[in-house]
Amino acid sequence: MSGTFPILKIDDFVLRELTNDDLDAISSIWGSPKVTEKMSSGPLSNEESIQMLYVLSSLWNNDAGIRWGVEHNGRLIGTCGFHNINKGLQRGEIGYELDYELWGKGFMYKALQPVLDYGFNVMKFERIEAFINVDNKRSADLLLRLAFKLEGTLRNYARTPRGLIDQNCFSLLKRDWQDLRQSGAN
Hints:
By secondary structure, this protein is of the alpha+beta class. The chain has helices spanning 23-30, 33-36, 46-61, 107-121, 137-145, 174-183, and strands at residues 8-10, 13-17, 66-72, 75-86, 91-98, 127-133, 149-160, 163-173. The model has no long low-confidence stretch (mean pLDDT 92).
């Protein structure tokens, strides 16, 4: 992916490129045990947060994906975007995280809509995948609300500080997303 980093807007959300100025917010989010217990990592130290910010920021420049900072009313509250892209098969994996204090308020649901549009319409995906820990009910509910389908459970699929864990695989096909958008359900 080359050129200017795309900025996406929806209501009072701006999805934008991550910068070094976001380190404190990234450290707060990725350093939270509540956030990372639902992911495949433990809480990140400040040094690890610096590395994570670098990794997420470099996806775009390395043609390996894209990760937006999710800004709400001028405050970075999370990130979302695509990685593990397979251009030949026209698919990518979506990932996201949100400040724990904002869970359950519909923020990530709102932010992911233009991201999914971008994936299907600009990146030309036919399929978007998501892998989440089996005990992450909030994330599963979010994906189902966005028309993702549960495809199955991958046993011992991810390594965490607690050991190997199962993850659920969800997918969203372009035609299903288009149907949802046309129905006005979003």
